[in-house]
Design brief:
Helices cover 60% and strands 2% of the residues. It has 7 helices and 2 strands; from the N terminus they run αααββαααα. The protein has a two-stranded antiparallel sheet. Helix 1 crosses helix 2.
Length: 163
């Protein structure tokens, strides 16, 4: 934060110089005084529990939703911030959920709100771990299939023995 305060102090002093209210000789002392004042204000705000909120940069032109989802990141169309995926937590900051965000910006219901690389990596992990094979319904169906195959094999064996 001190770097931001120094930049703010510099901007204030430069504005005074440009407005011809401050001579170049007085610049150094004015810069030090302004910086000290800003530091004191910051300390006072922190002691009173006031938190300075940085406002994110707003995009200069509206971005089409297709361009907001790239290989490595997805850009929030509400604030312009970039993420690997738009989380529920972030969308709540804009008083939105996934469905309302899609409706607001005309994004199809089936479109993932994550970067293409993130989506493909997750797909690859799921295909490797095959979680559906651990589901109780899948296991039950596999047991039934094995019993059916065993009974068919038993009938064939009996039919061969009779012949």
């Amino acid at each position: 934060m001190p770097q931001n305060l120094l930049e703010m102090a510099k901007d204030l002093v430069l504005a005074q110089i440009q407005a011809q209210k401050l001579s170049l000789e007085e610049m150094h002392s004015a810069l030090q005084h302004t910086y000290a004042s800003l530091l004191a204000l910051q300390a006072q705000e922190e002691s009173n529990g006031i938190v300075a909120v940085a406002t994110p940069e707003t995009p200069t032109a509206p971005v089409h939703w297709r361009k907001s989802i790239t290989k490595h990141h997805v850009t929030c169309l509400a604030c312009g911030a970039s993420f690997k995926q738009l989380s529920v937590r972030h969308l709540k900051e804009h008083h939105l959920d996934g469905k309302s965000y899609r409706v607001t910006y005309g994004i199809p219901r089936t479109q993932s709100l994550s970067a293409k690389e993130t989506t493909s990596r997750r797909k690859q992990i799921v295909q490797q771990s095959r979680p559906w094979e651990k589901a109780p319904t899948y296991l039950k169906a596999q047991e039934a299939k094995e019993r059916k195959q065993a009974s068919v094999a038993q009938r064939k064996k009996i039919a061969r023995a009779k012949a």
